UniProtKB/TrEMBL annotation:
Molecular function, one GO term: DNA binding
SUPFAM superfamilies given in the database record: Homeodomain-like, Tetracyclin repressor-like, C-terminal domain
DNA-binding feature ranges: 30-49
The keyword Ribosomal protein belongs to this UniProt entry's keyword annotation: no
Organism of origin: Sanguibacter biliveldensis
Annotated ranges, domain HTH tetR-type: 7-67
Keyword terms of this UniProt record: DNA-binding, Transcription, Transcription regulation
Gene3D superfamilies: Tetracycline Repressor, domain 2
Protein name stated in the entry: TetR family transcriptional regulator
Family annotation (InterPro entries): Homeodomain-like_sf (IPR009057), HTH_TetR (IPR001647), Tet_transcr_reg_TetR-rel_C_sf (IPR036271), TetR_C_31 (IPR041583)
C-alpha cells in the first residue's frame, strides 16, 4: 500500500487541536478524537508528536502567537498616545471580548500554565509581546498595568451577567495613563 503524501498533515493536526480545545476543552480531547477530526490515521499522531502534551504545547503556542500578532498590529497602527489608548479600548471592547472561542482557549491555556511551568513559557512570551507593543506608547509600568487591565476587563466582560459599560473601560485606561 502506497503512503499518502500529505505535507500539511502536521499543521492540520495542530489547527484541529486548537478548534477541538475551543469546543471541548483540554479534558475533552484525545489523540483518537484529534486524528478523526483531522482525517489522519491515529499512527500519524505519534509520528508527528511524542505525546498529547507536545501537541497541546504547539497548539497553544500557535494560538497565542496569532492573538499577540493582532494585538501588536493594533498598537503599531497607533501614532499618538491617544490613538494607542483607543487601540487598547478597542482590544478590550471589540477584539478580545467578542470571541467566546478565544476566551475559552485563553483560559484553557491559563489553567495549564497555572499547573505546569512548561506552559508558562507560552504565557510569558505572550505577555512579553503584549507589553513590548504597549511600550511603543507607554512606560513599562503603565504598560504592565494596561496589560493586566486588558486581561481583567476581558474576563469580567465575558463572565458578567450585566452588560459592560464601554465608558468604564475608557475611564480605566485614562486613569492608569494619568497615574504614570
Amino acid at each position: 500500500m502506497a503512503r499518502r503524501f500529505d505535507p500539511t498533515r502536521r499543521d492540520r493536526i495542530v489547527d484541529v487541536t486548537i478548534e477541538a480545545v475551543a469546543e471541548l476543552g483540554v479534558a475533552g480531547i484525545s489523540a483518537r478524537r484529534i486524528a478523526a477530526r483531522a482525517d489522519v490515521p491515529l499512527g500519524s499522531m505519534t509520528y508527528h508528536f511524542t505525546d498529547m502534551d507536545e501537541l497541546l504545547h504547539e497548539a497553544f503556542t500557535r494560538f497565542s502567537l496569532s492573538v499577540a500578532t493582532r494585538f501588536e498590529a493594533r498598537l503599531v497602527a497607533a501614532t499618538t498616545v491617544d490613538e494607542a489608548k483607543q487601540a487598547v479600548a478597542t482590544l478590550v471592547l471589540d477584539d478580545l471580548a467578542q470571541s467566546p472561542r478565544e476566551l475559552v482557549l485563553t483560559h484553557e491555556l491559563y489553567t495549564l500554565a497555572a499547573r505546569d511551568a512548561r506552559y508558562r513559557t507560552i504565557t510569558r512570551e505572550w505577555m512579553r509581546r503584549s507589553r513590548t507593543a504597549l511600550e511603543r506608547h507607554f512606560t513599562p509600568d503603565v504598560s504592565r498595568q494596561l496589560d493586566a487591565l486588558i486581561e481583567g476587563l476581558t474576563i469580567h466582560q465575558a463572565l458578567d451577567t450585566e452588560p459592560h459599560d464601554p465608558q468604564v473601560t475608557v475611564s480605566a485606561i485614562d486613569a492608569i495613563c494619568r497615574g504614570a
